[in-house]
Design a protein that fits this description.
- The protein is an alpha+beta fold and 394 residues long.
- Helix content is 62%, strand content 9%.
- The chain has 12 helices and 5 strands.
- It has a 5-stranded mixed beta sheet, with helices on one face.
- Helix 4 runs parallel beside helix 7 and helix 11 runs antiparallel to helix 12.
- The protein is elongated and about 120 Å long.
Length: 394
């Protein structure tokens, strides 16, 4: 019950913003307050209770925007309020729940309620609301035919609100499932790409080991027979590992995909990457510090991090000044890509990314034992900061 009670209005996918803006509900609640106060005063003679009762029946509209279940509970509890107030004030014609002015606050509340909770809960809420209205109308002195017609029309009207809310909920959940599947597929593809790149680097080292082990008996003087056999075993193991890795890469690539023979980029290619981005109109400054060598696996990761970060700037903040900093320390490589806000009046290019840029970047960094931080800066820009440990720390 506590979980249902705490349900919030669904948010726009990928953000924390509610699916509906607050302003329309504020205006609707204000309109309901004014209209009902006038109607209760002049049409139903509620006297001093006109404004309090009107405020009571208008409040659920605002509450439902923040907490749909709490909003429905309040609406359910206030369904009898106008009728009971009319009977208490001796009104000759007490208001009944199915009057149009009272539906103005119940309809949006039930819509948000059905949008936010499972069908069973919204159906129960609908039945309880109708039951409360029927029970409220019992002591009112009107003909059974009028009561039956009013309850029937009221029931159908509220049913439309529940059906529309539930229908939107179903569509939203279906869209989110499809988006989640696409996101998972793209993430798997990105992991496969990372595995291919790591394969190229590791295969190079294995090839070097195999060649060195095969040539060692001819390069080193006075190699014993036992040592020569050990070198031969190392060479055989390295070659077997290379064959296994080629088969693994073939499984990752797929039968219909041609092999990629281009060498993997690295830190030494950052200058050409930055130049290409500058030609696209993005002012980029590259800063490299530290003289410590960067291993090939980390070199590829650094390049891909900078490449993806610059691509995000081109897509989301065209024209913004960017600073790329790579620090090669003794214990870690640190990468930082920070951009300023896009110049005022710069139109967005309307480019869509793969949807897994930051996720793929995080996969690369995590695979090497590092950590990644991304987020907006205090100056209105965006920053990507990663740290890749070297040696045994990785």
């Amino acid at each position: 019950m506590g979980v249902i009670w705490g349900v919030r209005l669904p948010t726009v996918p990928g953000t924390e913003h509610p699916e509906f803006r607050l302003r329309p509900f504020v205006l609707l609640a204000a309109a309901s307050l004014v209209m009902n106060a006038l109607i209760f005063q002049f049409a139903y003679a509620l006297g001093v209770l006109s404004v309090p009762v009107s405020a009571l029946v208008s409040a659920p509209v605002l509450v439902a925007w923040y907490r749909p279940v709490a909003g429905w509970v309040l609406a359910f509890a206030t369904v009898p309020a106008p009728t009971l107030a009319g009977l208490a004030m001796g009104s000759p014609d007490p208001p009944v729940p199915w009057m149009l002015n009272q539906e103005l606050y119940v309809l949006p509340v039930l819509y948000l309620f059905a949008l936010s909770v499972p069908l069973g809960v919204s159906a129960a809420g609908y039945v309880m609301t109708i039951a409360a209205g029927v029970a409220t109308a019992v002591p009112v002195a009107i003909s059974p035919q009028v009561k039956t017609t009013g309850v029937l029309v009221w029931s159908l009207t509220l049913l439309v609100a529940v059906v529309l809310g539930h229908n939107r909920r179903v569509r939203r959940l279906a869209t989110m499932r499809v988006a989640d599947e696409l996101s998972k597929r793209k993430l798997v593809e990105e992991r496969t790409r990372i595995a291919r790149e790591l394969h190229d680097v590791v295969a190079h080292h294995m090839s070097v080991i195999a060649v060195q082990a095969a040539s060692a008996p001819y390069r080193v003087d006075d190699v014993s027979e036992a040592a020569a056999e050990e070198f031969a075993a190392i060479n055989a193991a390295a070659r077997a590992s290379l064959n296994d890795m080629r088969r693994l890469l073939g499984a990752l690539r797929g039968a219909d995909e041609p092999p990629d023979t281009a060498p993997q980029p690295g830190v030494e290619d950052l200058e050409s990457l930055v130049d290409s981005v500058r030609q696209a109109g993005l002012p980029v400054r590259l800063v490299r510090t530290g003289e410590h060598p960067i291993g090939p696996v980390r070199s590829v990761t650094v390049y891909r991090m900078v490449q993806e970060a610059l691509s995000n700037v081109v897509r989301h903040a065209p024209g913004a000044a960017v600073t790329v900093t790579v620090r090669a320390g003794a214990d870690a490589v640190e990468v930082e890509v920070e951009n300023a806000p896009a110049p005022a009046g710069t139109p967005a290019p309307g480019l869509d990314g793969s949807g897994v840029g930051l996720a793929g970047m995080r996969e690369r960094v995590t695979a090497l034992g590092g950590h990644l931080e991304t987020g907006p800066t205090s100056r209105g820009g965006f920053a990507v900061r990663g740290r890749l440990p070297e040696g045994e720390r990785a």
